[in-house]
C-alpha cells in the first residue's frame, strides 16, 4: 500500500496572504471521510517552498516504508510540486495523486 505525505506551504505568503490553512482543512476533511486515504495519507504544514508569488503551494510525496507521515521533511525535491492550488485543485490532487498514485499532469511540476 503506497503512502503519501501532502505538504501545504505555511510560509508567510502562502499562510497569510493566500490562506493555505483552508487547504489543510479541506484535505484533512477529505482524508477523514475516506478510510483508504485515512490509512495512508498525511497532511503536514511545510515551512516554505520559496515560490511565494505562486501560492498557495503543495507538494505530494511518497513516503518510505518506515517514514513517519506526520513529520515535516527537511527538504523536498522531484516531481510532486503544485503551485497556485485552490480548493478545486486540492480536491483533485487528493483524489488522483494521493488516492490513485497518478500525478495531475497538467498541474504538477518538478521541484
Helix-residue proportion: 25-40%
- Would you tell me the overall average pLDDT? 94
Q: What is the number of beta strands? A: 5
Query: Which spans have pLDDT < 50 for at least 5 consecutive residues?
Result: none
- Cα shape: globular
Structural class: alpha+beta
With helices defined by DSSP (H or I, 4 residues minimum), what is the helix count?
4
Please state roughly what percent of the residues sit in beta strands, choosing from under 5%, 5-15%, 15-25%, 25-35%, 35-45% or over 45%: 15-25%
What is the gyration radius calculated from CA atoms?
Answer: 13 Å
The description of the largest β-sheet is:
5 strands, mixed
Our measurement of the CA-to-CA distance between the termini, rounded to an integer number of angstroms, reads 25 Å
Strand neighbour order, sheet with most strands? 2-1-3-4-5
The helix/strand order is: EHHHEEEHE
Describe this structure in words.
The mean pLDDT is 94. The chain is of the alpha+beta class and 111 residues long. Helix 2 packs across helix 4 (87-100). 34% of the residues lie in helices and 21% in strands. The protein starts with a strand and ends with a strand. The longest helix has 14 residues, at 87-100. The radius of gyration is 13 Å and the shape is globular. It has helices at residues 12-17, 21-32, 35-40, 87-100, and strands spanning 4-9, 41-46, 58-62, 79-82, 109-110. It is built from four helices and five strands, in the order βαααβββαβ. It has a five-stranded mixed beta sheet.
Amino acid at each position: 500500500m503506497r503512502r503519501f505525505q501532502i505538504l501545504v506551504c505555511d510560509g508567510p505568503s502562502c499562510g497569510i496572504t493566500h490562506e493555505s490553512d483552508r487547504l489543510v482543512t479541506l484535505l484533512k476533511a477529505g482524508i477523514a471521510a475516506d478510510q483508504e486515504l485515512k490509512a495512508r495519507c498525511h497532511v503536514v504544514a511545510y515551512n516554505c517552498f520559496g515560490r511565494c508569488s505562486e501560492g498557495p503551494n503543495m507538494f505530494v510525496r511518497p513516503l518510505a516504508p518506515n517514514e513517519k507521515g506526520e513529520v515535516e521533511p527537511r527538504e523536498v525535491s522531484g516531481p510532486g510540486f503544485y503551485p497556485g492550488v485552490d480548493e478545486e485543485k486540492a480536491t483533485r490532487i487528493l483524489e488522483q495523486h494521493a488516492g490513485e498514485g497518478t500525478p495531475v499532469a497538467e498541474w504538477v511540476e518538478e521541484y
